[in-house]
Amino acid sequence: MLDSATDGSNSKSMSIIVTKGTLDWAYPPFILGTTGAAMDMDVTMFFTFYGLGLLKKDMNLKLSTLGNPAMEMPMMGKHMAMPNIIGGLPGADKGVTAMMKSMMAKKGVASIEDLREAAVESEVRLIACQMTLDLFEIKDTDLIDGVEIGGAATALEVAGKTDINYFM
Amino acid sequence: MADQTLDAKGLNCPLPIIKAKKALKGMSASEILAIESTDPGSVADFAAFCRQTGNELVSSEQSGDVYNFEIKKS
After folding, report:
1. Residue A89 located in a structural domain
2. Using the beta-carbon criterion (under 8 Å), do B14 and A39 form an inter-chain contact?
3. How large is the average pLDDT for residues B45-68?
4. Which residues does chain B have within 8 Å of residue A110's beta carbon, measured at their own beta carbons?
5. Looking at the domain covering B4-72, what would its CATH class be?
6. pLDDT for the residue B57
7. Which of A60, A64, A83, A118 is the 20 to 30 Å CA partner of B60?
8. Residue range(s) defining the domain that contains residue A154
9. Which residue in chain A has the smallest CA separation from B9?
10. Would A116 be classed as within a structural domain?
11. Which pLDDT score is estimated for A10?
12. pLDDT for position B10
């Protein structure tokens, strides 16, 4: 980035492979991506499989307690986990998603929409996986503006040049 | 005396850092940005941010629940 080139600081670069598209898993890549850009790093994010949903214009991220025994929500001073048999009931995902979103808003945690906007603003390079577009029949017009399309070779070329590589 | 002030109270990681970076972008070299935060993690994070970006962390203090930082733009 221009900033780091002119202020003489130690410029680093980072690439992140983003493979998951649930509300909880959307956070780590976008938090690190936007923070890296704020720290003058050149950041590239490669979205593949379910991660590709995070580039859709219309993003309605959801959460499920199913198969996630580590998930405990704070409730009335305690922590509560949801048994799979309850988490599988109709409406359970919707309820837990709403609960998580309201908890995040209350605690000043940014929404994924805001973090994604910050990523675009700070010129994070966003690459959508071509194979995933084909596989799930997603049109590039369904994605936000400014997204590049690429494949495994594109992702690896970037990864080979960056100081930090994450797979999430 | 700060040239600009950023109220990041109530915001959680990584918003104080992102908003600070945005504010610094619009400032000139040697100007000072004062930040107020309530995120305890921001103490370590602003130190790391400054080490990485080359901006100078002039002060980092706590008063009650609020953390005050002053960053001098490089």
Report:
1. no
2. no
3. 97
4. 11-12, 14-15
5. alpha beta
6. 98
7. A118
8. 2-61+111-167
9. A108
10. yes
11. 60
12. 97
Please state the separation of Cα A118 from the chain's center in Å: 12
Residue A145 forms part of a structural domain: yes
Judge whether A70 and A144 are in contact, CB under 8 Å: no
CA dist., res. B57 & res. B54, Å (int): 9
Task: Report chain B residues touching chain A, CB-CB < 8 A.
Answer: 10-15, 17-18, 20-21, 25, 39, 48-49, 52-54, 74
How confident is chain A (168 residues) per 10-residue block, as mean pLDDT? 48 96 97 97 97 96 92 91 91 94 96 96 96 96 96 95 97
* Bridge partners (DSSP) listed for residue B66: B63
Instruction: Report the residue from B17, B21, B53 with minimal CB separation from A9.
Output: B53
Chain A contact set for B14 (CB, 8 A): 31, 34-35, 38, 110
**Residue B1: per-residue pLDDT:** 81
Distance between CA atoms of A121 and A61, rounded to whole angstroms? 21
Q: How many domains does chain A have?
A: 1
- What CATH number corresponds to the domain at position A158? 3.40.1260.10
Q: Are B70 and B58 in contact (CB under 8 A)?
A: yes
Say what the alpha-carbon torsion angle B48, A160, A138, A30 is, to the nearest 10 degrees.
-10
A2 interface with B at CB cutoff 8 Å: no
With respect to residue A96, please indicate whether it lies within any of the assigned structural domains: no
